[in-house]
Amino acid sequence: MNLLSIGGSDPSSGAGIQSDVKVFSEFNTHALTVITAITGQNTTSFGMIEPVSKKILKNQLESVFSDFKIDGIKIGMVYNSEIIKTLYQQLKKLKIPIVVDPVIKSTTGGSLIEKSAMADFKKYIIPLATVITPNKFEAEILSKTKVNSKNTIEKTAKIIQKIGARNVVITGIEGKNNKIVDFVLEKDTEYWISGDKIVNTNHGSGCDYSAAMIFAISSSKTIHESVKFAKEFTYNSIKNAKKVGNGIMITNIQNQDKINLELSRAINEFVEIKNIYKNIPECQTNFVYSKQKPKSIKDILGISGRIVKAGEKVIVAGNLTYGGSKHVATALLVVNKKFPKICSAINIKYQNSSTSKIKKSKLTVSSYDRTNEPNNIKNKGSTVGWGIKNAIKNLQVPPDIIFHKGDFGKEPMIIIFGDTPKSILNKLLKIV
After folding, report:
1. What percent of the chain is predicted at pLDDT more than 90?
2. For 414, how many CA atoms within 13 A lie in the half-sphere containing its CB?
3. Of 186-200, 253-267, 320-334, 349-363, where does the model show the most confidence?
4. CATH match of 261-431 with 3.40.250.10
5. pTM value?
């Protein structure tokens, strides 16, 4: 996946282009950048702003669009009307998701957009937004309203939506019981998403949120799923913020759940495999990864929904959740008990083209016959566990693949096993 960040350069790497590159890299995506302005700032103060010329801005845009397939764009600092209008001319015909982070003021005190450019920002940039992610302060400026008992957050969001943004997410609203809530306004629905509050002043949380948002949306997550993903990611980056300079702390994204990150990366690669839709079974696909020595499926990370086929594409329908998978996680649990190094698994469609490639591969393969399944097992609904136990009963080495050819009303299936999600993908590419 290629994600483009358009915004200002922050030499402290707390926000702006540098922050987005860190976030995109954490998700194993290729980070592309177009710089709109160079700032002089650190964790204690804000210095100068030097906007780039129209000529070099246009050349940057043409360079990336002529050479790369862009899957999603995040727009941050735009600063002046010339930059705004140039961006609009280059982006207005694109059919890819765009997240707009309407940065107006730096945490360290600098104004990131000229007052004279605000009208053009509303006219040209906001209508480009698949999602716009203002905080309460930014939302009030964009809507020209003060949030109070008369002018609610809901009304403020609707004003911004009327300006042109398809979806509006107002972040960081003080909630009850030490909670921070985000208000989400989609086309036909509105709702709140709550999270725990962390009391600290930091540099970079807004950038982390919008960067995580464009990654999620570009990965075919719904707006609701993307907001939850971005909120959780940002919570962790704030929680792990570090004091690296003499001033405010900078958000830190290096201490995320590694199980989650590795599986997210692998799923991202999986959905990009050419013609992979042909390998999605009728029951759809799940991809799982476990902690060491899992005791139950609650210790195994999986998709709460499935990876589903949509025409000639596949999309991830659901979030990564511990206990999110039942059948594939159960299969992994059984294999892991005998072969503790096996911590990941995925199910794919059983088809002749795959089985012929499996025979030619040097992978360790086993199978079981569902027609031999005892009635008491069928009645208990513990088919997967019974089948996998039978398939590995006589194995002395961990299986790479276990398959069955189905039964009456039961779809045939292939399950690939490995120590990591990356090893699963390596094996998968040998047989699809």
Report:
1. 51
2. 24
3. 320-334
4. no
5. 0.68
Residue intervals of the chain classified under CATH 3.40.1190.20 are 2-256
| Mean pLDDT lowest among 155-159, 178-182, 294-298 | 178-182
pLDDT digits (tens, 9 = 90+) for 296-345: 999 999 998 899 998 888 988 888 889 999 999 999 999 999 999 999 99
For 195-208, what is the mean pLDDT?
A: 78
CATH, domain 2-256, list 3.20.20.80, 3.60.15.10, 3.40.1190.20, 3.40.50.300:
3.40.1190.20
Average pLDDT, the chain: 88
3-class SS letters over the chain? CEEEEEEEECCCCCCHHHHHHHHHHHCCCEEEEEEEEEEEECCCCEEEEEECCHHHHHHHHHHHHHHCCCCEEEECCCECHHHHHHHHHHHCCCCCCEEECCCCECCCCCECECHHHHHHHHHHHHHHCCEECCEHHHHHHHHCCCCCCCCCHHHHHHHHHHHCCCEEEEEEEECCCCEEEEEEECCCCEEEEEEECCCCCEECHHHHHHHHHHHHHHCCCCHHHHHHHHHHHHHHHHHCCECCCCCCEECCCCCCCHHHHHHHHHHHHHHHCCCHHHHCCCCCECEEEECCCCCCHHHEEEECCEEEEECCEEEEECCEEECCCCHHHHHHHHHHHHCCCCCEEEEEECCHHHHHHHHHCCCCEEECCHHHCCHHHHHHCCHHHHHHHHHHCCCCCCCCEEEECCECCECCEEEEEECCHHHHHHHHHHHC
Summarised one tens digit per residue, pLDDT across range 267-287 is 988 998 999 999 999 999 999
3-state SS, 71-99, equals CEEEECCCECHHHHHHHHHHHCCCCCCEE
